[in-house]
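Hi everyone, sorry if this is the wrong subforum. Our group has a chain we'd like a structural model of before ordering constructs, and none of us has done structure prediction before. Sequence below.
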Amino acid sequence: MLCLLASLPGCLAATASPTPTTPDHPALTHPPANTTPTPGSATPILAASLPAPTATAEPALTAESGKPAPPPPIIRAENLSTITITQALQFSPWELVLALAWSPDGQRLAIAAGEKIFIYQGDSLEKQLTISAPVWNSSLAFDPTGAWLAGAGRDGHVRTWNALTGEPGLDISAHAKGANHVAYIPRRAMLASSGNDAVSRIWDSASGAKLGEIIGGTFAVPSFVLTPDGEFIGLANGNLVRFRQVTSERFAFTVYGSGWFYSLAISPDGRWLATGEVNNQVQIWDLSDWQSGERQTEQSYATASHQGVANTSSALVWQVGFHPSGELLVSAGGDKTARIWQSPGVNLLATLQGQRMAITSAAFSPDGRRLATGSLDGSVWIWGIAGQPSSVGGASAP
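Answer:
Right subforum, don't worry. Here is the predicted structure as tokens:
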């Protein structure tokens, strides 16, 4: 547990990034033995070629040659029975996928894989940029304009890059023991970060000047959330989520959990807090009736669970995230599944499986039509709604 809470990417570096001993590194499509993928050479893979443990049929291509495909349907609770893999990327074995982020307009997808960051066109998965990080990044975030991309580095630095050209911007020595999470603060020209030093810091997003410092508590801060109005920040610290005002750093209230929090998300309307824990738990908390002051939230609205082996890394819920509608929640688990829940009741609607190692990241696109999942096996899969009901792609009903 100490390894998970302090620096999980650092732990993985010692065990999950071996130097290849042979030139043959099979991609997800199992190419011939003389095919040797090179670092950073991930290419789109047709969904029909992906391994699908529970598949009974192969998906058909629906777009006519030479004609733009119509936009896929919005992912909703009522059509999740038809969710399937539509596209995929496979990176080299040592390029573990630790983070991904959609641009605000959904036209680009940024992926942190190994010590590089890749930016792909959101619809075609055509590669646009390759950025040398130069370290593993456990979190990525676009600014509200989509012009800049920020990353939280294992070396404790928060860096930004021009998301259109790849040119470097800020390089902030933010956290002495490693940076874990980064996000642009809504409606403010500010950038927030958290790290293994139990602190979250606020930065001027243009100059990189430090504007504030918020102590999370005793332990590393693996994640934080920002309310949609940019007024409050909530820091995960052990079994607590402490909310403070961004500008004054004044304490607001605390969420008390029974387990240790690792990932956080807040619904688009700011009412619901989702938490992922180190022990498989996914919980929803109702924040609608709190006001500034020493109010304590001790009872979750609903609780659900992944199925990893207790007290191992497979029980870690790496990420949680809401659908833009607020009606769905996705969680990425160490049990090699991403699960889609109805929000706020966390009723299980679909289990997405087939990626070969822990799912570290999962995010709905801003238009709600696509879901990206990234894994320690170096793969990124894009999920969407099929034209006809199908079990292709390893999706299953609860």
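For your construct planning: The chain has two domains: 72-91+231-236+251-359+374-398, 92-221. The helical segments are 2-15.
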